[in-house]
Amino acid sequence: KNSALLLVQILENEYRKAFNDLILTKKKERFNRLRDEERRLLVKAETLLEEGLALEQTNAFNDASERYKEALAGFKKLNWQRKIGITHVYLGDVYNKMDQYDAARRAYADALPFFDRVADAEYMARILASLGQTCFNAADYADALDNMEQSLNIYRQLKNEDAVRKLEKNIEVVRMKLRN
Asked: Which of 101, 100, 123, 97 is nearest to 112 (CA)?
């Protein structure tokens, strides 16, 4: 039994390594197809995104949001759909931390189509949960419940039990607010 479990773990690790190698190869191929100007723009946008993350971790939220907006402009020029979506999520997160709930809601809503197009259910669920939390923070409990329930359904399909438990607890809190 232990040797079978060990074999499964080894195979899982090998699969992850091969999958990550494939992703890196595809990224490198895509990067190599870019013109020099596009490469510089991509490096700049990625750098701005990293700077935004670093600033956000030091609670410099205004500066972080500015870096994210600049990165977003670069990714839009390159038409890098996934990076555009991710940057919208980062903007939503930082706006949420700044208690700018309307801006956070717009940023999360702007991110959703990018992950819907590529059928990235995990990111869709995360965004919907964040959008639900933002609505809750803004005391919009009906929208909070709707977004959290959508997220819960996706996490159930993905069989992500940790996320399901967390969302079920959050949904109960929202329902209590709606009853009051």
From this structure: 123
